[in-house]
UniProtKB/TrEMBL annotation:
Gene3D superfamilies, per database record: 3.30.2460.20
Family label: Belongs to the Wnt family.
Lineage top rank: taxon: Eukaryota
Record key words, sorted: Developmental protein, Disulfide bond, Extracellular matrix, Glycoprotein, Lipoprotein, Secreted, Signal, Wnt signaling pathway
Any one GO molecular function term: cytokine activity
InterPro entries linked to this entry: Wnt (IPR005817), Wnt_C (IPR043158), Wnt_CS (IPR018161)
Role this protein plays: Ligand for members of the frizzled family of seven transmembrane receptors.
Location in or out of the cell: Secreted, Extracellular space, Extracellular matrix
SMART domains, A to Z: WNT1
Protein name per Swiss-Prot or TrEMBL: Protein Wnt
Length: 367
């Protein structure tokens, strides 16, 4: 039986049975923010939310999210896809740093997410921004591919293209993606019971930074037409860059994130830069409230899994170097045998044959 544990609100347990699927257990945590997208990344590919009563069982959703689920079941399936993408993309983007998105790699038997994402750190800022960008990105692409019946291709741009270019194809529907993505991911933070006002402001701000990065990633893509590939005419559309490129942009913002404090500004409290509070927070900068641990040693209270046994690069001068990754503790070498294709030959017509070659590679892991 599908088993879904909803947490961060008073805990309720919901049980799902999806016809046509195998019986197995899936335990995950839902929280009052975008990280609920991350936790459902544990869902097997066979999971399908295809009946409105399934939405009623998701008691951890706030009312507007549940209503969105009931009115658009396909959208919830897209959100599950987005959750998997967040986890995968985050881990790839930070694979060379001490914090490698371990916070969102939630074990299926864990009672909740790791605490570093609940403390208003710069890591939480990145996760929120990436989550918001990913859900809108996934929805926009789903419109283009025809996976969502309530939307279609993006609108044709109003500007007149240059000579030799013409608008056509099927552009990503970023407008629909942003609307539906923000409706779902921002809804919990607009509830009165959703934590401190400072945390809500931080998370809403960083989610919008993620969506702004997505807007900046909408570029013109073209396909050539002409005799013998002459490209005399180009058919163009507006399409989104790959999520990995957007994540790298957000990583840059993460590295230069601004620490803020929650203090009165005029008639209400707002987030302002801690060290330079003479200016407001910029719309395109990630912000955080609490400093992060160094992530060198395991510390469950701070959400750090440490870097022991992490692979490092002995010749690197960057964050993946053995000196920085291992925090001065040193490292151990080991030898790994790689099997690769080699001595490939092309045979007319038309196949390639290769041999298999073995070579030994020296690797290093932190003590």
């Amino acid at each position: 039986m599908w088993s879904i544990t909803l947490c961060c609100l008073p805990v309720h347990r919901a049980t799902f049975y999806f016809p046509g699927s195998n019986f197995m257990s899936w335990s995950t945590c839902f929280c009052l923010f975008d990280v609920l997208l991350l936790s459902i990344s544990h869902a097997p590919s066979s999971l399908h939310i295809n009946q409105t009563q399934h939405c009623k069982l998701l008691t951890g959703l706030v009312s507007s999210q549940a209503q969105l689920c009931r009115s658009n079941l396909e959208l919830m399936q897209t959100i599950i896809t987005a959750a998997r993408e967040v986890k995968k993309t985050c881990q790839k983007t930070f694979s060379d740093m001490r914090w490698n998105c371990s916070s969102i790699d939630i074990p299926v038997d864990a009672p909740k997410y790791r605490p570093d994402l609940d403390r208003g750190t710069r890591e939480a800022a990145f996760v929120y921004a990436l989550s918001a960008a990913t859900i809108s990105h996934t929805i926009a692409r789903a419109c283009t591919s025809g996976d969502l019946r309530l939307c279609s291709c993006g609108p044709i741009p109003a500007e007149i293209p240059e000579p030799g270019y013409r608008w056509g194809g099927c552009g990503d529907n970023l407008h629909y993606g942003l609307i539906m993505g923000s409706k779902f991911s921002d809804a919990p933070m607009k509830m009165k019971r959703a934590g401190s006002h400072a945390n809500k402001l931080m998370h809403l701000h960083n989610s919008e930074v993620g969506r702004q990065a997505l807007r900046d990633a909408l570029v013109m893509k073209c396909k050539c037409h002409g005799v013998s590939g002459s490209c005399s005419i180009r058919t163009c559309w507006r399409g989104l860059q790959d999520l990995r490129e957007i994540a790298m942009d957000l990583k840059t913002k993460y590295l230069s994130a601004t620490k803020v404090v929650h203090r009165p500004m005029g008639t209400r409290k707002q987030l302002v830069p801690k060290d330079i509070d003479i200016r407001p927070v910029r719309e395109n900068e990630l912000v955080y409230l609490q400093s992060s641990p160094d992530f060198c040693a395991k510390n469950d209270k701070q959400g750090s899994v440490g870097t022991q046994d992490r692979q490092c690069n002995k010749t690197s001068l960057g964050s993946d170097s053995c000196d920085l990754m291992c925090c001065g503790r040193g490292y151990n070498p080991y030898t790994e045998k790689l099997v690769e294709r080699c001595h490939c030959k092309y045979h007319w017509c038309c196949y390639v044959t290769c041999k298999k070659c073995e070579r030994l590679v020296e690797r290093y892991v932190c003590k």
